[in-house]
Amino acid sequence: MTDKKLSKIAAPKGVPDYIPPQSAEFIHIRDMFAHQARLAGYEHIELPVFEETSLFARGVGESTDVVSKEMYTFADRGERSVTLRPEGTAGVMRAVIEHNLDRGQLPIKLNYYGPFFRYERPQAGRYRQLQQVGVEAIGVDDPALDAEVIALADRCFKSIGLTGYRLELTSLGDNTCRPQYREKLQEFLFDLPLDEETRKRAEINPLRVLDDKREEVRAMTADAPLMLDYLSDECRNHFETVTGLLDDLGVGYIINPRMVRGLDYYTKTCFEFVHDGLGAQSGIGGGGRYDGLMAQLGGQELSGIGFGLGVDRALLALQAEKKHVTDGSRVDVFGVAMGADAKRAMVRLLDSLRASGVRADMSYGDRGLKGAMKGADRAGARYALVLGDRELDNGVVAVKDLRNQEQTEVSLDKVIEFVTR
Ligand code: HAM
């Protein structure tokens, strides 16, 4: 033993803690999103937090920032290269193929949530451990399913009361029309006086150049050919059916033909939800269709569509809109017992309250009436149950309504009925 004081340890850079009372809001948002997914027939899938590295290299795409710069990759003690999952779609697809879920009823509709890991430069709303709720509907290429997935994401945000966001939408075509477009775009880009690095990007993934944030590159690419003008008839019909269905559903959207998603697997419908109150990290959710992913991972040629909603950013968006999804209370009732016998009775009373589904806590230690009542206030309780020797002798408890300070004596065996009324 040494009496030298040890230094404190902080969480890793860019990794948020969710502590009370904020943690209640966080859980509520996540659960509301998952609840909406269940209402649309999605079943939960619990996936490993780390996978074989090749899954993401092959699934997400080696040319993406996510794979080339941001993965937490390490060799385990058996010298296997593993990676903390940077996103959920590749893992879902791996599990679907591994467990032959694609041999049953299609589409397979799956929902997941949890932490994902990206070694990004931390800033407000951009974390190295981020939380998503996602869905994937796999096995059927039906524009009605695209509309369902997009409307579901919109419903998720609405369900927590968010209003200050917009939906951006485009189609990225498929392998019948995108290669021709890609050539056209490259022809256009190679004629521009681009710097070496941007030129290289134009060779590997020309679409990404359209997403360049620099003003001079934006100006140069203002007249670049756009995928939407080169869609095959099939892709165009697909996209028009999706937008028509969203119109029917009253889901508003903006067509953004320059949208570039950070992952390579997308084809046809692509979308992003953008919130204006968040500053630079404004994407609160996004997704799209992916025709080739399953085959790319060794499975059948089946298409899928899904989304990932950012729970951290949804929480920040709610704060920006000055809204709450919980009332901030920790319990419904708070027990205040004066004396050893009263405390003993209170412990039993709380136990039966909790068994009836009432959130209940009590004052511990010897705090005195005033301190204990403060505890009741701090817990956000609706009722304080005050029990002293006198009440105990009479078989009653003093129930104080903390909203209006009205006090009622209630017989001990009627307390549950009284507070759940
Ligand atoms: P994504 O656009 O990379 O898509 O991420 C989805 C959402 O996760 C983003 O819109 C954002 O809200 C949140 N997010 C991403 N990175 C961070 C970060 N560093 N800090 C905080 N929040 C972040 C995907 O991951 C796809 N797997 C979605 C998908 C499912 N596409 C088809 N199916």
Automatic annotation (TrEMBL):
It catalyses: tRNA(His) + L-histidine + ATP = L-histidyl-tRNA(His) + AMP + diphosphate + H(+). InterPro entries: aa-tRNA-synth_II, aa-tRNA-synth_II/BPL/LPL, Anticodon-bd, Anticodon-bd_dom_sf, His-tRNA-ligase, HisRS-like_core, HisRS/HisZ, HisRS_anticodon. It holds the Pfam family HGTP_anticodon. The keyword Ribonucleoprotein does not apply. One of its GO terms (molecular function) is histidine-tRNA ligase activity. It is found in: Cytoplasm. The gene is hisS. Keywords: Aminoacyl-tRNA synthetase, ATP-binding, Cytoplasm, Ligase, Nucleotide-binding, Protein biosynthesis. Homodimer. It comes from the Bacteria. Its EC number is 6.1.1.21. It is an enzyme of class 6 (ligase). Belongs to the class-II aminoacyl-tRNA synthetase family. This is Histidine--tRNA ligase. The keyword Zinc-finger does not apply. Residues 29-321 form the Aminoacyl-transfer RNA synthetases class-II family profile domain.
